[in-house]
Amino acid sequence: MTPGSVEPDKDEAAPPTRPTVRVAAPTERRHPLSVDLDLMSTRDVLTVINDADRRVPAAVAAVLDEIAATVDLAVAALRGGHRVHYFGAGTSGRLGVLDAAELAPTFNSPRDWFCAHLAGGPDAMLRAAEDAEDDDRGGAIEAAGCVRAGDLVVGLAASGRTPYVLGALAASRATDASTVLLCANPEAEAARSVDVFIGVDTGPEVVTGSTRMKAGTAQKLVLNAFSTAVMVRLGRVYSNLMIDMVATNAKLRGRMISILLEATGCSEEVSRRALGEADGDLKTALVSLVSGAEVAAARAALARSADQVRGALALLAS
C-alpha cells in the first residue's frame, strides 16, 4: 500500500470479464492496396476506395442464383399470407430497416409484409449499440415472439457469425420458417444451417474490418434487388412502371400522370380525366385506358384478378 492509497474492499466483486472474439472473416483481413492509407493524399484515398468498390457488383452477380431462390421463397410466403423478416445488427441491420421501410411508399405493400428487426431496437438506427449483436438469446426471443411457420427469415450479418442473427435464425427454424443468411463471408459456418446461403465475396475492406464499406454496399445491392424482384413477381410493377405507388406528395401525384402517359400513350388530359374518374386509383385508371373499358369494369376485373393489372387486362380481353 502506498501512502494515501485506499485498500480495495475484499468483498467487492471484480467486474466481469467481457468476452473477446477474433473474427476470421475476409472482411477482417488487410487490403493490400490500402496499406499506408493514412499517408496518402485525399485524392488517392478516394481512388483506392472507389477502385475497391468496383468489385462489389461483380461479387453480387456471382450469387444471383441464391438471390433468385430467396425471391421465390419470399413470393411463396407472401402469397400464402405469411411474412418476410430481416434480422440484423449494426450496418447490416440498419440496411434491412431501410429496405423494409421503403417498400410501402414505393409499392404500396402492406406494412406487415416485411418486418425488420435490429439488434438494440429502434434506438440503434441512430446510435450504435454494438454489444447488442452479441446477444444470441435476445435474437432468439425476438424471433420466437413474431416468426411463424411459413414465414421467411433473412439474417443479415457481414461476418456470417453475429450471435443475435444466428440466434434469430435458429429460433425461426424451430417454427418451420424458411431461413436465409446474407453475409460477406463465403466461408461462414452457418451456411450449413439455413435453407439458402448468400455469401457475397467482397474481400478485405479498405479500412480493415469496416463492414459499412464494401460489405454494406453489397448488402444494399442484394436487398434492393431481392425486394424489388419480389414486388415485380407479385404484380406490383407493370412493364417497368411503379403502378402501386402511394401518391403522398405533389411529385408523386405528377408521377402518376407520367406513368399513365408512358403506359397508355394517351394525352395528359385523357390521363388526368381517367385518374379522376378512378378516384385516384392508378391501377384502375391504367386498366381502363389500356383496355378501353369503363372504370367500373376495370375495377371489377382487378378485383377478380387479385389486383393484378395483367390478369385484369386478360379478363377484359376475353
Folded structure, characterized:
The structure is a single chain. By secondary structure, the protein is α/β, with parallel strands linked by helices. It has helices spanning 42-53, 55-61, 64-79, 90-107, 136-146, 163-174, 214-233, 250-264, 268-277, 282-291, 295-304, 309-317, and strands at residues 84-88, 114-118, 152-156, 178-183, 196-199. The protein has a 5-stranded parallel beta sheet with strand order 2-1-3-4-5, sandwiched between helices. Strand 1 (84-88), helix 4 (90-107) and strand 2 form a beta-alpha-beta unit. The protein starts with 41 loop residues before the first helix and ends with a helix. The mean pLDDT is 91.
Strand order within the widest beta sheet? 2-1-3-4-5
Coarse morphology: globular
- What does the radius of gyration come to? 25 Å
The quaternary structure here is single chain
| Low-confidence runs | none
User: What's the total number of strands?
Assistant: 5
Q: Indicate the mean pLDDT.
A: 91
**SS-based structural class?**
alpha/beta
Which percent range describes the beta-strand content?
5-15%
| Helix fraction bin | 40-55%
Count of separate DSSP helical elements:
12
* H and E string: HHHEHEHEHEEHHHHHH
Largest sheet, if any?
Answer: 5 strands, parallel
What is the first-to-last residue Cα distance?
A: 96 Å
